[in-house]
Inverse folding.
């Protein structure tokens, strides 16, 4: 358990006021976000059948919560880690057209998560996905979409300031683009997390691109599943977060794999056995649309905009008693 207790922390809003702010941020953000990216809200599953290959396996080592159902025989059912793959299938299934997309309120359980100020076993995010043309699978498309998302987040800062001026956390005015290799070249002796802290402290907000593949050092900056993001056209939106004196990831997103990039990445990950799964067959046969998509943390965004010290202040989850006690002593009130 890793926990940061800011010195002389003042939450500014009471628990009741915080709840009102959470509701306002979530409702306002998703409305503006959907409008700016041409996304429609859809309902989404909390669990999927393991045999479909639709669950996100994250870094490949986290185990999903699984169970069986009375009417499903011996079929293994898994609580989703995210809806990265499900969304792409949904776009085809529901007949979305070019440059249309969807967003959904995704709730997941990641039981192997290391709990700290940012991380919970309960994950709530806006999962989104949008159809693009094959010729739009480019870095330019990725950057343009990132800039739009950043613009909506900045808009939310002004909205929150109007409603809760005493609590709003001010954000930088610009987002910068840096690749993981450029970051390794800048800070070769640092760990990946130390590099993220260094660059976000310097620039304020960064979209860190090309995550998943090996760098010149032979090491990866971070893990990514090989079968949804194209590792050459993905990234994370990172903000420098002064209350905790470190970076905060708000979104992971990217251009999704086509047949060539998925096959290449599955070989690197020694996961070619997945090619027998229904989802992967659809990718290889080009039965699914080309898309861009990602996730935006709902509680993380509330935490960022309200200057909170712990995600548990804006999310009702389960925490070790030791963490609860230390937080209370530091004026951090976990829900």
């Amino acid at each position: 358990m890793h926990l940061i207790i800011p010195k002389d922390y003042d939450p500014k809003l009471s628990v009741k006021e915080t709840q009102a702010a959470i509701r306002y941020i979530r409702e306002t953000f998703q409305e503006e976000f959907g409008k700016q990216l041409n996304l429609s809200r859809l309902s989404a599953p909390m669990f999927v059948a393991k045999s479909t290959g639709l669950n996100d396996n994250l870094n490949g080592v986290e185990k999903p919560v699984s169970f069986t159902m009375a009417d499903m025989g011996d079929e293994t059912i898994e609580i989703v880690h995210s809806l990265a793959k499900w969304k792409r299938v949904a776009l085809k299934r529901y007949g979305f057209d070019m440059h249309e997309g969807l967003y959904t309120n995704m709730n997941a359980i990641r039981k192997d998560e290391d709990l700290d100020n940012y991380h919970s076993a309960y994950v709530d995010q806006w999962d989104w996905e949008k159809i693009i043309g094959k010729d739009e699978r480019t870095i330019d498309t990725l950057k343009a979409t990132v800039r739009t998302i950043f613009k909506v987040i900045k808009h939310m800062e002004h909205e929150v300031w109007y409603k809760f001026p005493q609590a709003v956390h001010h954000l930088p005015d610009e987002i910068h683009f840096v690749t993981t290799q450029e970051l390794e070249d800048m800070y070769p002796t640092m760990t990946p997390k130390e590099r993220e802290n260094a660059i976000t402290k310097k620039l304020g907000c960064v979209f860190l691109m090309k995550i998943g593949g090996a760098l010149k050092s032979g090491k990866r900056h971070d893990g990514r599943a090989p079968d949804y993001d194209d590792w050459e056209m993905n990234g994370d939106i990172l903000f420098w977060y002064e209350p905790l004196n470190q970076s905060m990831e708000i979104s992971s997103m990217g251009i999704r794999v086509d047949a060539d990039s998925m096959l290449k990445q599955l070989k690197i990950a020694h996961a070619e056995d997945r090619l027998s799964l229904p989802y992967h067959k659809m990718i290889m046969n080009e039965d699914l649309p080309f898309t861009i998509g990602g996730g935006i943390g709902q509680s993380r965004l509330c935490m960022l905009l309200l200057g909170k010290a712990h995600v548990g202040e804006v999310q009702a989850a389960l925490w070790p008693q030791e963490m609860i006690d230390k937080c209370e002593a530091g004026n951090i009130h976990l829900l």
